[in-house]
Design goal:
The chain is built from four helices and two strands, in the order ααααββ. With 104 residues, it is α+β, with helices and mostly antiparallel strands. It has a two-stranded antiparallel sheet with strand order 1-2. A hairpin with a 2-residue loop joins strand 1 and strand 2. Helix 1 runs antiparallel to helix 2. The longest helix has 27 residues. The termini are far apart.
Amino acid sequence: MIVSGIHRWSPALGRRLINIKVEEQLAQEMSLKILEEAYAEAMSTLRAVSYYRFYHVFRKGEFQQLFAAIPEMTILETAFESGNWYLTAEKKDPKPKSSHNISI
């Protein structure tokens, strides 16, 4: 019925629309509109989400004590900065240097 009304108004457009099923075109347009609205809503929700992080504030000596339990590491420096403790460490040499003197 829609196509026949368009055909009376514009015969050329009516001939082109005869090949397209009106129901399919309407379903396509509605699907696209629904997807666009769902995408816009999802994106606005993502922008509104807050992300929380948990930070542990170490007591004096706590971080060093935990790190000292790692036998492969040597603590070089500890300090307090920006409300928390930090340390600088290095990995111990896995092969101890021998101090044996060989004489010939």
